[in-house]
Amino acid sequence: MLFQVRDLHVSYGNIRAVRGVSFEVDKGEIVTLIGANGAGKSTILNTIAGLQAPDSGTITYQDEPIAGIPAHKIVERGMVLVPEGRRIFGNLSVYENLRLAGFRLDEPVLKQRLSDALKRFPQLESRQHQRADTLSGGEQQMLAVGRALVTGGDMMLLDEPSMGLAPILVREIFNILKNINRDGKTILLVEQNAHQALRLADRTYVLETGVVTLSGRSADLIQNADVQKAYLGG
Amino acid sequence: MDLDTLAQQFLNALQLGSLYALVALGYTMVYGVLLLINFAHGDIFMFGAFIGVFGAFVLGLPFLPTLLLSMIITALLGITIEKVAYKPLRHASRLSAVITALGVGLLLENGMLALTGADPRRYPDNFFAASVTIGDTTLELSVRIVIIAVALILFLCLYYIVQRTKWGMAMRAISYDKFAVPLMGVSQDRIITLTFVLGAGLAAAAGILWGVAFTASLSPYMGLRVGWKAFIAAVVGGIGDIRGAALGGLLLGFVEIFVVALGSPIGISSSYRDLVGFALLLVILVVRPTGLFGVARRQKL
Ligand SMILES: Nc1ncnc2c1ncn2[C@@H]1O[C@H](COP(=O)(O)OP(=O)(O)OP(=O)(O)O)[C@@H](O)[C@H]1O
Ligand SMILES: [Mg+2]
Fold first, then answer.
1. Which residues line ion ligand 2, judged by CB < 5 Å?
2. Which member of A32, A205, B78, B144 lies 3.0 to 4.6 Å from A201 by CB, making a disulfide possible if both were Cys?
3. What is the CA radius of gyration of chain A?
4. Cβ contacts of residue B146 below 8 Å, gap of 6+?
5. pLDDT in tens, B12-57
6. Alpha carbons B283 and A175: distance in angstroms, whole number
7. Distance between CA B130 and CA A100 in Å, rounded?
8. DSSP sequence for B26-77
9. Does residue B165 lie in a domain region?
């Protein structure tokens, strides 16, 4: 198993946001965690990425425990997070955002990754010297994913990449994620947009108020009556 | 005012302004990265000037080596202050950070007083003999022009670092949204260290140049007024923006010099010049609350 979370607990003061969550992701998979507002999705991803310390539980990546390692070191292990709300640096140019994402890289690798990322997102190429906050929402999301491609690693975590985007853009982003996965990257995706996420992912976990209530192959969950009622609008 | 006097005052203003600017840069960078007003920064400037005295008198070094020595030692002081005094407070309230900064400043002032005594210091007369020899003609350079040139070169180096290197990109990125910076594989601590190195180094250079420009003015308390002025300059320019700090410093230099130059013939005492500086701050902040270059930033988390 490439990645495993066991009995994870995370809290903010006395708010217990994540209460004993376990799941796993195999190499080459796309796995999604779906859940409503406040279910604890971002808390889980931020904890994995090292932005937040867990109360207890283990997180294992490539057979090594990574819980509690600071975020910039997690990146070195080969795991990268595209955070909720994209969090691009609006005061930097598009190019600078991508360049900064390759902070640790040597020149030849950096060059290669930059050109790969721009090939994947041709819209960004012509806007390289524009300030990133002048991009549209969809372009900003592409920049956020492009940045993660430059940073690199075997596994990409994405926190609601569909947030605030028109359906056609969501499809475009999800197609790109599919391609990125085909090219070898393992993906852990967190979504409220269950329709698209279930269609994309190999396996799905359903998260409710900090607990996993259901899990299985996405193709099976799409047929599940409870899932249909709660997440697919009937 | 005849043309020659005007030119002289212009140089005076550029000199004073570029020194304010060098100090203002340190305030603005630390604020940009940490949202902390480093009220000890004026005293770091003083420390740099005194390391200059040490280099010139005790070690007998000429100008440039003294400048470098002081910039390096003062940068180390900047790192130490950040690690010992500010880092433990990174998640504490804004007020405790401000009080700590003021405390660090007092410590530096009184430490230097205990170490060197209260007599005003000055650099040796031959410390700053600026001349260039080309072939067999020797050109005497005006002290002011050299000071302005050194300040300009330092600013351009800083501008290059901030605008063109990945370290500078990380500094600017932190000032916009520090949450996402570690996700790029960047250690926030290292960027903060770099910020203090640059800010303290520039303050040290300003301290030495100040001592050269205004002889007999080195006292352990010299950083207080200059620190306040430079802080005003940083706020006027739009705190967090290095172009703003440079412009704010120059603006304040011009205002102060010309208030005295134009005011004294018509009976306005030169003691009004500090008042005018503060008035300028108020006026600009009323018209543009974020300063000349300031923009609204992403909310701190
Ligand atoms: N910084 C915080 N301080 C206090 N409570 C928080 C904080 N962040 C999240 N929470 C709480 O933790 C719980 C889980 O929040 P989280 O952001 O992980 O949910 P989410 O599933 O990502 O929701 P959304 O779909 O809205 O992004 C919520 O009850 C939330 O109110
Ligand atoms: Mg969330």
1. A 41-42, 84
2. A32
3. 17
4. B128, B130
5. 999 999 999 999 999 999 999 999 999 999 999 999 999 998 898 8
6. 54
7. 42
8. HHHHHHHHHS---TTHHHHHHHHHHHHHIIIIIS---HHHHHHHHHHHHHHH
9. yes
Residue B172 maps to a domain: yes
Cβ A102 under 6 angstroms from ligand 1:
no
Here the ipTM equals 0.95
Residues B146-161: b if buried by 16+ CB within 10 A, e if exposed: bbbebbeebbeebeee
Res. B133 pLDDT band, cuts 50 70 90: low
Nearest by CB to residue A100, choosing from B170, B175, B187, is: B170
- Would the CB of A17 count as within 6 Å of ligand 1? yes
Tell me the pTM.
0.92
Residue B194 Cα distances to A4, A19, A44, B35, B245, angstroms: 37, 40, 32, 15, 18
Q: Is A86 in the pocket of ligand 1 (CB under 6 A)?
A: no
Strands A15-25 and A56-61: unpaired
Q: Compute CA B129 distance to the chain's CA centroid, rounded to the nearest angstrom.
A: 24
- B18 near B152, Cβ under 8 Å? yes
CB B213 within 8 A of CB B63: no
* Within a domain: B59: yes
Chain B contact set for A72 (CB, 8 A): 182-188
> Residue A89 and residue B180: Cβ atoms within 8 Å?
yes
Query: pLDDT (tens digit, 9 = 90+) per residue, B85-131?
Result: 999 998 888 889 889 999 999 999 999 999 888 776 777 777 776 65
Within 8 A by CB and 6+ apart from A62, the residues are A2, A3, A77, A78, A154
Burial state string for B220-230 with b = 16 or more CB within 10 A and e = fewer than 16: bebbbebbebb
Residue with tokens 């005006």: B142
Mean pLDDT of A48-56: 97
CA distance A34 to A145: 20
The confidence band for B261, taking pLDDT boundaries of 50, 70 and 90, is confident
> pLDDT tens for residues A61-107?
999 999 999 999 999 999 999 999 999 999 999 999 999 999 999 99
Q: Considering only CA atoms, which of A160, A144, A157 is closest in space to residue A98? A: A144
Percentage of chain A lying above the pLDDT 70 cut: 100
Q: How many CA atoms lie within 13 A of B104 on its CB side?
A: 26
CA distance linking residue B280 with residue B272, whole number of Å = 12
In a domain, B179, yes or no: yes
How many domains, in total, are found in chain B?
1
Q: Residue B131: which domain range?
A: 14-220
Please report which ligand is nearest the Cα atom of A18: 1
Q: Locate the chain B residue with the closest alpha carbon to A48.
A: B183
pLDDT of residue B260: 84
Mutate to test the interface with A, among B33, B161, B166, B184 (most CBs of A within 10 A): B184
